[in-house]
């Protein structure tokens, strides 16, 4: 897509350990706190609000354990999650996105900044022990849109511009950045390099490979020996033999991309996926 939106503010009420929370976010936000302070609850609330599959085939994402109970174990208060997505500067959002999301975009006449407010509410039915979530976009009066702004199609369009990816907290990043990771592997597979740029890069790889082979005479000697063996095996009709110190194909380079998070004294976490 031509652009994406970023969360600028989050309001949460009655979700797990969070009774009331109103926090503003920057494009990059780090959440730090003690155990059981609500860090995971905040992130899970955002994931549930932006879950694309919820509401389909009976799935909601929410469950009864997301609701706080009163001291007598009676009725549970409704969950409220509100997410704001705002431009930081006028015209930041591309026209393609503005056109697609026009029915749910709010424009501040003073700052000329566009914004979107998504509200998710969820109630709990104690008899059937079922949950009932609802997704709506709010207008400038903090009320659900009517007419074109209230259509369900707005959600699917919106999610195209608000992708939500998450990694579980862990001490070894190899688990998420390894070959079986759906997140990292899927992300690498979405990389698209123009054909002309691919040809330029692969030519550079070939030149670098040649330099590496010339750096140590033993490699050239190995190459010569392999050519001789190949010629004997193929009765003098062997094709050329080469040694690749580095992959010459662009995808072979990309699918071995690794993440390195380095501290002051050592590499703290690394991941090296194998996607073949």
Give the gist of this structure.
By secondary structure, the chain is α+β, with helices and mostly antiparallel strands. The protein has 7 helices and 8 strands; from the N terminus they run E-E-H-E-H-E-E-E-H-H-H-H-H-E-E.
Radius of gyration: 27 Å
Poorly predicted parts: 267-276
| Number of H/I helices | 7
What proportion of the residues form beta strands (DSSP E)? 15-25%
Distance between the termini: 27 Å
The overall average pLDDT, rounded, is 81
Query: Which structural class do you get from the secondary structure elements?
Result: alpha+beta
The helical percent reads: 25-40%
**Sheet with most strands:** 6 strands, antiparallel
Number of strands: 8
Rough shape?
elongated
SSE pattern, N- to C-terminal: EEHEHEEEHHHHHEE
List keywords for this structure.
276 residues; alpha+beta; six-stranded antiparallel β-sheet; two-stranded antiparallel sheet; 8 strands; elongated; disordered C terminus
């Amino acid at each position: 897509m031509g652009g994406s939106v970023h969360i600028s503010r989050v309001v949460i009420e009655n979700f797990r350990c969070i009774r009331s929370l109103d926090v503003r976010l920057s494009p990059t936000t780090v959440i730090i706190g003690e155990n059981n302070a609500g860090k995971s609850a905040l992130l899970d609330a955002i994931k549930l609000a932006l879950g694309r599959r919820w509401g389909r085939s009976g799935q909601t994402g929410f469950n009864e354990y997301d609701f706080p109970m009163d001291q007598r174990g009676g009725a549970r208060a409704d969950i409220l999650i509100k997410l704001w997505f705002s431009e930081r500067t006028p015209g930041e959002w591309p026209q393609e996105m503005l056109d697609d999301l026009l029915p749910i975009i709010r424009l501040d006449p003073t700052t000329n900044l566009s914004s979107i407010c998504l509200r998710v509410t969820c109630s709990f039915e104690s008899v059937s022990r079922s949950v009932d979530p609802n997704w709506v976009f709010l207008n400038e009066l903090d009320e659900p849109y009517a007419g074109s702004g209230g259509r369900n199609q707005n959600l699917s369009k919106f999610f195209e511009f608000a992708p939500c990816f998450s990694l579980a907290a862990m001490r070894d990043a190899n688990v998420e950045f390894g070959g079986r990771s759906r997140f990292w592997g899927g992300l690498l597979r979405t990389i698209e390099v123009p054909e002309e740029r691919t040809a330029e890069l692969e030519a550079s790889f070939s030149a670098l490979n040649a330099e590496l082979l010339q750096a140590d005479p033993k490699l050239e000697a190995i190459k010569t020996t392999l050519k001789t063996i190949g010629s004997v095996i193929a009765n003098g009709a062997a094709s050329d033999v080469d040694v690749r110190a580095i992959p010459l194909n662009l995808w072979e380079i990309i699918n071995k991309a690794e993440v390195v998070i380095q501290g002051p004294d050592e590499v703290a976490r690394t991941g090296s996926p194998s996607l073949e």
